[in-house]
Design goal:
It is a single chain. The strands form two sheets. Strands 1-2-5 form a three-stranded antiparallel β-sheet, with no helix packed on it. Strands 3-4 form a two-stranded antiparallel sheet. It is elongated and about 80 Å long. By secondary structure, it is mainly alpha-helical. It is about 40% helix and about 5% strand.
Length: about 280
Amino acid sequence: MHEKLTGLKAKAQAGIRVAGSIQSVADFMAYWQREVLQDRVRPSTLRTYRAKSTCQCCAQGKDAARRAAGKEARCCAKHPRQCCESYPSDGTIRHLHRMIRAALQDAVVDGLIAENPARNLRLAHRYRPRFTPLTGEEAKLLLKAARSDRLYALYAVALALGLRRGEALALRWQDVDLVDGVLFVRQSLQRLNGRLVFGPVKSDESERVIGLPPPCLAALRQHKLMQDAERKTTGRQVAGLRPDLHHRHRNANRAAQPQPALRLAPRRCRATSSALP
């Protein structure tokens, strides 16, 4: 104890910050997510952080699945001496490392710890699968198959411009300038607590203005004409690129929810506009 006290005094005299309070990592992580991250990240990111901080065996219902299959429950959180033999993926480990490193760096700034033990931690390199974009020919086949679909214009825009799924789902006509031929990426559609809500884009750089290639512009103009015709027939007001992308009020006591406009294919599409027919 004397040696530790002497070491702390030596660090303090040398201008090295030492921990000023005793707090468990679990308590600090709960505080960090509740108080610090609330105004720093998007709600969907905060939800992901909270989900990663819980026992994944419990969160994913693995024990419930084992019991349903007639097997013994063996979650590590409930049976510390018994490993459930379910290991996180390489991507999950890297995500957890980034989260813990960011949290501990705030602890350093707050003077709770002297240095960030996760800052210089090196993770073992493993193979990380990369998505394979569609080729030009595959993009042409996709658009050819979707040509008769009422959402063809939205597929074409997402394919040619490489929009994220949430960005494509959140497109509104006010985000499209059919005169100057540009598209404004201003918001994203997210699912929070089972509800679809509009929110900000992923980062400041994600809010951008994109020029529309002539084929995309032509598809959007044709889509607008189709929606105008539908509105005259049905009397429905159209807010988004899909006829039913608007706020619906099922009754006076329920909040409106925007409806998704598009489900992208599993592989992200980043083909050039030359693929558009």
